[in-house]
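Sequence only, no structure available. Ideas?
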Amino acid sequence: MAALVLLTAREKVSLEDLMFKLNQTNKSRFRNDCIKPLMVLDYLQYTQADRPNSGKQKYILTPKGRALIEDEKTF
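Reply:
I predicted one. C-alpha cells follow.
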C-alpha cells in the first residue's frame, strides 16, 4: 500500500483522495499505519508544513520519495 501512496502523491493530494483511491475507510488507521511512517522515512511531506492540522492540508513526495519511485530497480 505504501508504494501506491507514493505513486499517487507525485502531485499534491489530500488524505481523503488518497483514501478513496486506495479503497480505505478508516482515516486514523490509514494515517497511522501508512502516511506517518512514510513521513518519518522522509518520503512524503505536508504541503503546508507550518499548518499540519489544516483542513486544506495535502501531501506530496519529498525529493527522496521522488527518487525512490523513479528508480526502476525499486519496483
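Helices lie at 2-8, 15-21, 27-40, 63-70.
Hope that gets you unstuck.
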